[in-house]
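User: Could you check the structure of this?
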Amino acid sequence: MGPEIVNKNKNSIFHGDYVGHDNITVNIVMLKDSEREFVVTHNANIKPVAYFTGRETELQDLRQRIAEGKKSVLVSGMGGIGKTHICRKLFEEYLKKYIEDQNCCFRHIGYIEYDGDMNSSLQNCLKFKHQDNPEHNLEAAWRELEYLASNGKLLLFVDNVNVSTGDDPCLKRLMGIPGAIVLTSRRRAFSKELEPYRIGFLNFEKCKEIYEKIRFENSSKKVAEEEVPDLEYIIDTLAARHTITVEFLAHLAWTKHWTVQELRNELEENRFQLEYMDEEDKLVNIQKSYETLYDMSALTEAEQNILEAFSVFSYIPLAAETCNEWLLADAGVSEDDDILMGLYQKGWLQFDVEQESYALHPVFAQFIYDKCKPELENHLKLVEACQRKLAIPNSGSALECQKYIPFAENMVKKLGMGNNLEQVNFISAIAYLLYYVAEYKKAETLYEKSLRIRERVLGEEHPSTATSYYNLARVYQAQGKYEKAEGLYEKSLRIRERVLGEEHLSTAASYNNLAGVYQAQGKYEKAEGLYEKSLQISEKVLGEEHASTTISYNNLAGAYYAQGEYEKAKRLYEKSLRIKERVLGEEHPSTAKGYNNLAGVYYAQGEYEKAERLHEKSLRIEEKVLGEEHPSTAKGYNNLAGVYYAQGEYHKAMTHYLKAYIILLVRLGTDHPNTGVVLKNMRIAYYKWNPEGDFSQWLEEKMKNISDSRQTITYAV
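Assistant: Sure, the predicted structure tokens are below.
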């Protein structure tokens, strides 16, 4: 409603030149301040290893950078020299300061384990208000992080960022957040916003301390004086002062009860020696050296199978319970065999006592993967178990499922999946979960892979291929790629009509989806015809009073409305609204949309007072149920502003347009069409309100005054 035109989008009318899709809006309901804690990530037990030592200079330098609010990245050309544990030590220090006197210079602190994608890492690690619609959780997580950092009092650690900002664009969004951020990475070049801090190797004395703490289990016992030369030779010459290798050797000596001399003899007998680093700081023969020391042929087939599985995982701790569920079946052992703890005691796996989780260090993972080249047929039970974890529960919350996305993605990549039908279900399960949590780009890639397999094996006319067309079309539609979605929906529909018949509910759903894409592109007559077919099937199969049938009433009414057939639209909107009020109640968001839709018809017919009352009623429900900063609520502000504009109440119109614009600007960004439409409406209303003014200057001034310090955007006109 407003100075331009009137359009219709699926179940709701958006007045003025306002077109959008509910499935790409973002629901944001924030935590209350009282619900926030000092540690804003799920794991508050981030600690360095018990044998952490040295690094006093590095710690002091980083404390100074943190105090200055800088963004730093701890870099080295290789893994295994202590970047992670430096971060963990700092995290532990600041947490201890807060616990002791609560006078820490930071209001919030967080630690994120990067899993290859900033979006999923943030959702897995950050505490945020999970939304009624799980698809909105991603933006909710980002909004929570941005709010926590808004006063510059957030200290955030992000560990093991192994890609560039080009490979993961969401890292750029992270760089735009105020406050101190410390990342770890092996990459030398990263981002201009991050100041690199190079991590070097520990000296012999510090490496000796680490060796003694592990070998003698944190007791006060030391290496005998006469053994020090042999240990120095081991650390400096054979292990090249590579920290993780020193740790592994100490663990091996503890497991085997070897003296330093016995360890040296074993290493020399096996010709173990890490060569000096090249100019890229990489140990040029680390894999070959590890192979001589860690002989996989000495392991049982079951142990090798489990290590192979770990080698295709992301370097993220996996709960012991989940390890048992995923890994033991393929290995052919039971929990009673305690095989995982055995691999830890032999020095292969890492075990976190507090989290009761296992992990395989990336250095070992690469060595095992390259040597064994894991094959899918040896890990079929693992794939099945992981797929079960990806299934979204009836509650609709995908939080637990999301934790397993990095594992599943790595399985597809490292087990060479994507070649036959047996693998399609697993790939599609990952893709659907990614779609569900609004990771559309990733979902698109996997759905395309699934489609290629089905087309190649089953042909383009098979019902299963039709499902792939539908899935991929849905992802395209969510991203506003309507032409691509249209073509695939049409292909899917033709197959369903042929196989299921024109009276099937699935076929009706296809009519509805395709009509939605037509309508989004302004093809109203084509949309109307399909909506009518879908409605006829729904009424026949479900009945006129079914809640699902109201969707068909709304959709068809919207097509009538868009073409100016207001009386037809009005009758269907009223019928739909009566059912919603009876079945869902007057306070339901879907009922609010019903009020909004009917108000649009009244507006179009010049009955502004009736339109105003219904828009206000709809808006009150949306503010109450969805919150004042929800994009759907923004639509309500826009629509009510249009009514005020039509009645000459330009100041009221400006206030509501400004509210709508700021919400959409923050939630959807400047490039979203809905944001641009509201901006256009507001500009027109501005010159009615202030004919001599400068709209651009006025808006720039308003943007400077936006405040969300109390989780509420200020919109004073």
